[in-house]
Amino acid sequence: MRYEKEHKPVTRQRIIETAGRRLKRDGIDGSSVATLMKDAGLTNGAFYTHFTSKDELVATAVADQLHAQNANIVAHAAPGRDGLEQIVRWYMSARHRNSPDDGCPSAALLDEIGRCADPIKQAYTDGVLVVIDGIAARLAPGDPRSARTRALSAYAMMAGTLQLSRALADRQLADELLEQGIHNALDLLGAGNEPHEEDLELPHPPSRQQSLPRKHDHPRPMAPAATDRHVA
Fold first, then answer.
1. What is the pTM of this model?
2. 135-154 tens-digit pLDDT
3. Fewest C-beta in 10 Å: which of 71, 86, 139, 151?
4. What percent of the chain has pLDDT over 90?
5. Is 54 exposed, middle or buried (0-12, 13-18, 19+ CB in 10 A)?
6. CB–CB of 134/74 below 8 Å?
7. 218: alpha, beta or left? (left if phi > 0; alpha if psi -120 to 50)
8. What is the dihedral angle through the alpha carbons of 110, 111, 116, 118, rounded to the nearest 10 degrees?
9. Phi/psi at 85 (nearest 5 deg)?
């Protein structure tokens, strides 16, 4: 029936988006198929209408989260050095650290993805390179490919710093680590000189992940996530 044909892709996308948030919050091993389907408002029995295995859903959700990060954060950053600073300050913010289910899938899932099967690793690789190439385009606009490794190295450093900040019980030390991480990342990216005077805030896009802060802003409490789509 026509309704079923139109409804199925919408339902599948809802599963992918809610699964992405759950995986980042509870991990791959900690998220059962039953839980992932319940988050989407569906029964466990409906899973195989949309996916052949949990691995297929994980691979699809990880890729979707990375494309969302690129579309909602990297693609909205300004060109050049200002954009690099926007990206780094968003990534190393306390807001991002405190809300892993609304943030970067790399910082939330890298350790588990490293132990996953090749299709999940490939989905991650393809997705993360979209993000990296957006950063590299601000490092070397004339030849982004030449800056890919440096962008990837900075991204890895930011993900590791965020993970460690989340793990520390000492909140002051965790905050200081994020602040130092900002300086380290900007230095690695060649954007660590004196800040510009102009305001670096972007318009808030319709986002499934957090939007970019102003470069001088102190972190603010997380706004309610606007990631889930509800289907009647």
1. 0.80
2. 999 999 999 999 999 999 99
3. 71
4. 77
5. middle
6. yes
7. beta
8. 50
9. -65, -40
